[in-house]
Amino acid sequence: MDYNTQLEKLIIPEYGRNIQNMIDHCISIKDRDERNICARAIIQVMGQLNPYLRDIADFNHKLWDHLFIISNFKLDVDSPYPKPSAETFITKPKVLKYPGGKIRYKHYGKTIEEIIKKAKVLPEGPERAELTRQIANHLKKSYLNWNKDSITDDVVFKNLGELSEGALKLDPNTVLSSHQELRGPVKKHFHGHSGHKNNKHKGGGHHKHKRKY
């Protein structure tokens, strides 16, 4: 009896050793037409063994790619799809660089800093003034989302000036949205007894029944 540890390592273990043996046999077939028939038969078996792949786009394309991968790209058959190359799977993808730069106030985030840059290049006028006010409200809301303590408008104006390097300013008398408005309405929960009607009656809610004689 041969142990799995003594056998050749499976290239794609999910398909099992029988599929790998079938593909090895297919490679050994000299007649090309017979190899093509054998390869198509193996594709059908591979699809039956992995029905979950049917939900994936290009289901058959993926099966044919797996067929060539398991054969170590030695199988020479007519595929309905472009044959993948070994280099495609050997070449490592390029390492993506994470965006650099420090965030001055982490609770405000990086996105707002980009918006401030856009606002700085706008010409003076109502549009820039309104955008500046909206940015200030966003700063206030972001602070409240990340901190339990409240923040005053003058502190928001100060932070806005620092983030914009003094380019964006608001009138000190400007009133930003309140904490309640920024946090949203508080949902009120009403507790009542289900199945009971609240009927108001005179005399403390007691019924006076007349006795019939």
Q: What's the SSE blueprint?
A:
Elements: H1 16-28, H2 32-49, H3 59-70, H4 86-90, H5 111-120, H6 126-146, H7 153-163, H8 179-183
Helix pairs in contact: 1-2, 2-3, 5-6, 6-7
Q: Enumerate the spans where pLDDT stays under 50 for 5 or more consecutive residues.
A: 189-207
User: How far apart are the first and last residues' alpha carbons, in Å?
Assistant: 103 Å
Shape designation: rod-shaped
Q: Compute the number of structural domains.
A: 2
Strand portion: under 5%
Helix content: 40-55%
Largest sheet: none
Chain-averaged pLDDT: 80
Give Rg in angstroms.
Answer: 36 Å
Number of strands: 0
Q: What count of helical segments does DSSP give?
A: 8
**Structural category:** mainly alpha
SSE ordering: HHHHHHHH
Give keywords.
213 residues, mainly alpha, 8 helices, 0% strand
Write structural notes for this entry.
With 213 residues, the chain is an all-alpha fold. It has 2 domains: 8-90; 111-183, no CATH class. The protein has 8 helices and no strands. The protein has helices spanning 16-28, 32-49, 59-70, 86-90, 111-120, 126-146, 153-163, 179-183. Helix 2 (32-49) packs across helix 3 and helix 5 packs antiparallel against helix 6 (126-146). The N and C termini lie far apart (103 Å). Residues 189-207 have low confidence and may be disordered.
